[in-house]
């Protein structure tokens, strides 16, 4: 199976596995795990923040960050295509008692300007309205094709929020993909937000873990929320050891994933019945449509899975493929051949390369 559903399917490197076995550990709940402390200090320095906190997942990281920012009954503004709004189980509303307000995106990942401004009431003293308290930005923007938002735009959003007295949280699950694609250091990107969450367990290949970073005072609040959510771990150095390697050794190689994504997009553009703009692919996410009216997106994904290429549906009639360390250039070429064959088959036909594993959902992050 050529696994293109997500970069969450990356496996830890041999160096990570060794480091996890040899990790010096302590009780992280008491702040006494030296490897966790080293990871948190390294992460904070890497993104230019005062402090950082290890989280079991990006979903919990975003949730803890938002809850640490906003009071109950306030409004949290997020993109209508963002992971926080679509893929994190409504945790902001369920656990934080905050209104999650979705704002539409332009195709390039930016917010629709007038729609963003419309979320701020003309009279903030009018008790009918939930008052905005936080603006959440996603970079790279997953459902807009993994685009890396320009630094100037991120600064504009920060200035827009500051002028209205609200904070900014950056969901940087793939922050280092943005760094590599844009050539802008992660710390400069993170400087456009009060807090940032980024994953160690996607393209960086650690088996588990995400980081939340911000001011020292903010991270203290995050730790309290993490405890409330059940995310405080004990001898977490075995996790942190892999995270240190992820940060120190794995960010630069993301350029290889980006090159493979462009390679796949160029192959797909040569296949009759596929709608894709290779020029829109800037990181490791490829979105495309199948134009054959005899096949729905779900049917195409299922047929591709039976033929040995795992993809996901991605809404709006789109299909997503994500490149990562577990996929090399030769896999990309073979995947393109398989997908061309699937489209060329009479409906109901098979390629003869079936894989017994079902292709399921399980989140689109």
If you had to describe this structure to a student in words, what would you say it looks like?
The chain has 2 domains: 12-249, Aspartate Aminotransferase, domain 2 (3-Layer(aba) Sandwich); 254-344, Aspartate Aminotransferase, domain 1 (Alpha-Beta Complex). The model is unreliable at 351-362 (pLDDT under 50). It has 14 helices and 13 strands. Helix 1 (14-22) runs antiparallel to helix 11 (237-249), helix 2 packs parallel to helix 11 (237-249) and helix 3 crosses helix 10. It is an alpha/beta fold. The chain has a 7-stranded mixed β-sheet with strand order 2-8-7-6-5-3-4, sandwiched between helices. The chain starts with a strand and ends in a 21-residue tail after the last helix.
Please name the defining characteristics of this protein:
single chain, 365 residues, alpha/beta, Aspartate Aminotransferase, domain 2, 14 helices, 13 strands, 40% helix, globular, Low_specificity_L-TA-like, lyase, Threonine aldolase
Helices, strands, pairings?
Layout (H helix, E strand, L loop, with lengths): L1 E2 L10 H9 L11 H13 L4 E5 L2 H12 L5 E5 L3 H4 L4 H6 L2 E5 L9 H5 L14 E7 L12 H13 L3 E5 L3 H8 L3 H5 L4 E5 L10 E5 L1 H14 L7 H13 L4 H16 L4 E2 L9 E6 L6 H11 L1 E2 L1 E2 L5 E4 L6 H16 L21
Parallel strand pairs: 1-11, 3-4, 3-5, 5-6, 6-7
Antiparallel strand pairs: 2-8, 7-8, 9-10, 10-13, 12-13
Helix pairs in contact: 1-11, 2-11, 3-10, 12-14, 13-14
